[in-house]
């Protein structure tokens, strides 16, 4: 590997890290350095983690320790057989970069991942050393997210959790068949075993912290994962079902979705075109329905096309479910329970909470609901109020053209 200076390494390894979406930063324990003894702080809110080549808008230093890798996963641009420029940081270089960038007010924390070099244990040791040095040698109190390696020794992963705010392990693909075909060197059972161990450690640590104030925290922001969308034949139904299973079994804070992007010198087993980015967006919306709108995975899957298993791209999953199960509507906003109101297209959680509070004092009219939502037009076919009942709309055989978003021609030079 040719000798590169730090700036050249940063350009290569920050660009290589852009494919990893699972770097949210919310939910960790609050820390600050007002006592003058440490460096950095965390807040309960999320930290923006956008990367720009010219250095703007970077609040998490998001890099790889190295983009060299002994694995040859077909979908990965950093795979062993890929013809890309390679670089590698030492643990001390990452520590120095993090501290230097923080002191210049460029970042608020570090997201560190890596290709596998030498062995899984050696790579994990280097990543743990970065976090350990920041915390112990420099008393860094900012946010740290480590992408852990499931093949590494469990004690190394445990050490990572003692220094990092959040851990993440990528399940990579939603089906076991897809993982075996596209990443034969990775073991789905081993990945899930590592996630299970992290969950146990997180739960045990929460109990220990309640009992002993001096107990060290373990990954206080929890763990997350990421799935690649469109690299294999998995349907949206498969992906939603897998995500639900991961949430239930491993207590994940988030499941992230990353649309497959064709890479140079791609393997013949990969698709030639990337999936629509809207598909990734619809999967995030379906994830939101399960996490905040009390939809079951079966309900979200039911919104997909019966023949293809895919969610529609032109309308959101909640509207697709409502159109498919019109027998559940219209919903009387003055009488319906919370779970039914949450299924009304156009009503968000905040609006539903407002309806539940307001109707305790008086009967709600259409104008009252309109004040709680962005657009009442989308709601009309699905609700009943004191002065509104969608008799004509409910009798129409096809109401999708009425409620679906209107197509608009974008303007190149629009303000």
From TrEMBL:
Its cofactor is:
[4Fe-4S] cluster
Q: Gene3D superfamilies from the entry? A: Aldolase class I (3.20.20.70)
Cited SMART domains: Elp3
Q: Which residues form the Elp3/MiaA/NifB-like radical SAM core domain?
A: 59-286
What InterPro entries does the database record attribute to this sequence?
A: Aldolase_TIM (IPR013785), DNA_rSAM_put (IPR023874), Elp3/MiaA/NifB-like_rSAM (IPR006638), Endo/Exo/Phosphatase_dom_1 (IPR051675), rSAM (IPR007197), rSAM_sf (IPR058240), RuvA_2-like (IPR010994)
Asked if the keyword Iron-sulfur belongs to this entry, the reply reads: yes
What are the record keywords, sorted? Iron, Iron-sulfur, Metal-binding, S-adenosyl-L-methionine
- Its domain of life reads Bacteria
Q: Which NCBIfam families match?
A: rSAM_link_UDG
Name under which the protein is recorded: DNA modification/repair radical SAM protein
Q: Which organism is it from?
A: Sphingomonas mollis
The major lineage groups are: Bacteria, Pseudomonadati, Pseudomonadota, Alphaproteobacteria, Sphingomonadales
């Amino acid at each position: 590997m040719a000798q590169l200076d730090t700036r050249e390494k940063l350009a290569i390894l920050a660009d290589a890290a852009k494919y990893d979406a699972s770097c949210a930063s919310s939910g960790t324990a609050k820390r600050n350095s007002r006592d003058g003894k440490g460096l950095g702080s965390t807040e309960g809110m999320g930290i923006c983690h956008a990367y720009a080549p010219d250095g703007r808008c970077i609040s998490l230093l998001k890099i790889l320790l190295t983009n060299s890798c002994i694995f040859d996963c077909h979908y990965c641009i950093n795979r062993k057989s890929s013809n890309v420029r390679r670089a590698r940081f030492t643990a001390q270089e990452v520590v120095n970069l993090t501290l230097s960038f923080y002191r210049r007010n460029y970042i608020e924390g570090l997201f560190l991942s890596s290709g596998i070099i030498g062995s899984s244990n050696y790579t994990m040791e280097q990543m743990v050393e970065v976090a350990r040095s920041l915390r112990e040698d420099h008393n860094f109190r900012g946010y740290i997210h480590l992408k852990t390696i499931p093949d590494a020794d469990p004690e190394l992963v445990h050490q990572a959790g003692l220094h990092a705010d959040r851990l993440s392990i990528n399940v990579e693909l939603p089906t076991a068949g897809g993982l075996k075909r596209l990443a034969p060197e990775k073991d789905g059972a081993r990945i899930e075993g590592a996630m299970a161990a992290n969950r146990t450690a997180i739960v045990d640590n929460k109990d220990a912290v309640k009992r002993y104030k001096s107990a060290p925290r373990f990954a206080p922001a929890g763990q997350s994962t990421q799935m690649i969308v469109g690299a294999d034949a998995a349907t949206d139904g498969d992906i939603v079902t897998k995500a639900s299973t991961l949430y239930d079994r491993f207590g994940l804070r988030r499941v992230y979705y990353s649309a497959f992007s064709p890479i140079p010198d791609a393997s013949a087993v990969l698709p030639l075109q990337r999936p629509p980015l809207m598909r990734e967006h619809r999967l995030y919306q379906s994830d939101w329905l399960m996490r905040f709108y009390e939809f079951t995975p079966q309900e979200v899957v039911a919104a997909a096309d019966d023949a293809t298993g895919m969610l529609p791209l032109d309308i959101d999953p909640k509207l697709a479910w409502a159109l498919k199960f019109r027998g559940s509507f219209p919903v009387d906003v003055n009488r319906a329970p919370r779970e039914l109101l949450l299924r009304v297209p156009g009503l968000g959680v905040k609006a539903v909470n407002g309806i539940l509070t307001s109707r305790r004092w008086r009967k709600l009219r259409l104008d009252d609901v309109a004040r709680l939502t962005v657009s009442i037009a989308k709601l009309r076919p699905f609700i009943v109020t004191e002065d509104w009942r969608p008799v004509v709309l409910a009798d129409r055989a096809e109401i999708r053209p009425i409620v679906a978003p209107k197509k608009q021609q974008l303007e190149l030079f629009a303000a």
